[in-house]
Structure formats: structure tokens, C-alpha cells
Amino acid sequence: EAGRVYNFNPGPATLPLEVLKEAQAEFLNFNNSGMSILEISHRAPQYAAVHEKAKQDIKELMGLGDDYEVLFCQGGASQQFAMIPLNFATKEHPGSYVLSGSFAEKAYKEAEHLGVGEIVASSKETGYHHVPQQSELKIDRNAAYVHVCYNNTIYGTEYHYIPETNGVPLFADMSSDMLSRPIDFHKFDFIYAGVQKNLGPAGVVLVVAKKSLLENSPESLPTMFRYSTFYKKDSLYNTPPAFCIYMVGKVAAWIKSQGGLEEMARRNERKAKVVYDAIDSSNGFYRGHADKDSRSFMNVTFRLPSEELEKKFIAEALTHQLSGVKGHRSVGGMRASIYNAMPYEGAVALADFMEKFRKENA
Ligand code: PMP
């Protein structure tokens, strides 16, 4: 599409062009309501259909049945960091956290702030180059849950196994790899994701959890902090972010139409291979941050020989229509986010540019 760049931003991030065009085409008169989705009542039947279909498609993609429910919350994934310990952890049954990066730490800090958090493994000491492996997890059988951050957006590491927790409920922040590949989601009790990476615009958080966890929340909590409020009222207790949910629904339908999570995984692995190959074949010019067995399919992080060259790389990338490759300030270097909607051609364009830049600057 003329004027559009390959957008490697970590989130908000690139969305499927087909989805953007569809939204554009129906923007002024949504579903024959005579108004746009931004203007319609969240109680209108035209909206109810969108809400329901989005939930159904997400559950279908994840292969989950009636024992799971999809909620639409607000406050970002960051608010979930607090809501989770508020709803589930106590001093007697604390929340157990695996520290694998910045967001895992932030999640832990909210539980710690409430006096109900503990750490069961951490790769912080070694610079978050890998996600803690099963053998590193010291599971506390008394814990309310084990919390993991499944893809570490900033460090570019991702789990390639499902932690075994000896019966303790498994909770996961999947903000940056939600619906990017098939996973045995049944092994998770509670999954949440800010949608602004793989699934839509910023403004809604997807929660997919076992119903049994959502039925009863502590009465002591304010209404909007209880998961039971969202569950019992179908995420319509208050006005939901209707536009965001509509977009998430469109992205979920797009994933289905493309072949589901198997096809997303096939594409994402193919893209990641192209970019990681450019790192691995660079004779050390590019140095990946993640250990190979923890490499993320979503966020590829790497450094160049000097900060000066990194600045030059970012500036020159832009002249090749490659935008958003600057890494997070805490890690430095580059980060290319190659979510579901990044086309293969985008990954190839980046790898070609990396090769050219290396030859000119090595
Ligand atoms: N978790 C992960 C893995 C993230 O990447 C982010 C955002 N970059 C967050 C949590 C925080 O999400 P939000 O901005 O929606 O609060």
C-alpha cells in the first residue's frame, strides 16, 4: 500500500492491511446501523453480535471449550499485574513469579506491593538472556498460582515449553505472543494479553481463564477490580472499549481465514528464521541478545558493534521504509517486532538491509 512502511514497532504494532481496509470501508455506517462503531451503543444488537463473535473466534482459535471464558478488561496488561494478586493471592497462598524480563518483574512488584508475592525463579542475574527452564523453577505447592511472562517483548525471549507446576494454577502474560502459534492452552488456567501487539489497537486486555477462577472474587474488592464482575456481566458491566473489541474480532477472524494458529506459526517461524539467519551469518557484526534456545518468534533483539553504528542503522533503515527497529532503552541496540501481521516480505527486506549495512560498515 502506497506510503506505508514496514512497521517493526513492539506495540502498538502493525495490523493486517485487510483488517484496516475492512474497518475503513464500514466505518461510516457500521452494519447498517446508520452510525459508526465509535458512535453506537454498547447495548445495541449490532454491537452484541461483534462482542459475541470475537469471544467465540478467540476460544475457537485456542481450541478451548465451555470451561473457559473470554473477558475484555481495561487498564492494560499493567492493570492485570495488580488485579491478579488482588483477586487470587493471599499471605497464606502467595502468587509465585518467574522473573524473565521487565514485565515479569513489574507483575511481581505489584504482588510484592500487596505483600503476597514470591519469586520462584529468575534469569535476572544473567541479564535475561534466557527464560528460566523447568529445572530452575522451585515450585511452591502452597502458592495461589505460578505467573510467567510467556514472551519477553523487551529482551526478545520466549518460552518454548509449558511449565509443569505440580497442580498449582498456571498464569501467563501473553501480551506479545498471544495467538501467534498453537499452544496447549488447556495447560494454562489464566492467560491475559494487552492486545496492542498481535491483536488490535491499544485499549483492551484479553483475559482467557478457567470459569472456576472467575466465578467468585473477594467481596472486599471494588466492583471493577473483581473478575467476577466481568464474568457475570459478560464484560458489559460498564461501557467496554467497543472499537477495540471490534478490531480484535476482525483480527481473530482474519487469523481464522488465513488458516488459524498453525498457519500463523508457520509464517512466524519463517520470518524469524530470515532475521535470525542475518544475525547468525554476520560473523559477529550483529550480536543477538537471546540465547538460541530462548529466542522469540515475535521480537528479535540484537546489537551492533557500537552505539554510533546503531544510530546509523536506525536512520538508514528508515530510508528503506523499515520503521521502528530501535530497541528498548534498557537493552539498547535493535529490536524487530515481527508479529502475525508483518508480511514475510518485511522480514526479507530487513534481512537484506542488515546484510547491505554490514558489508558497508564492517
Ligand atoms: N506485558 C508484556 C509482555 C508487554 O510487552 C507489555 C507492553 N509492552 C505489558 C505487559 C504492558 O502492557 P500495557 O501497556 O498494556 O499495560
TrEMBL record:
Location(s) in or outside the cell: Cytoplasm
GO molecular function, one term: pyridoxal phosphate binding
Main location: cytoplasm
GO cellular component terms listed in the entry, alphabetical order: cytoplasm
Pathway: Amino-acid biosynthesis; L-serine biosynthesis; L-serine from 3-phospho-D-glycerate: step 2/3
NCBIfam families linked: PRK05355.1, serC_1
Assembly and interaction partners: Homodimer.
Name this polypeptide is given: Phosphoserine aminotransferase
Organism: Mitsuokella jalaludinii
